[in-house]
Amino acid sequence: MTRKQTNPAQATDPRFKIAHREAIIGIALAIFNFIWWFGFAYGLGSRPPEEYTYIWGLPDWFFYSCVLGFIIMCILVIIITKFVLKEVPLDADPSSIDQPKEGPAKQ
Question: Which of 56, 25, 62, 26 is nearest to 43 (CA)?
Answer without folding.
Answer: 62
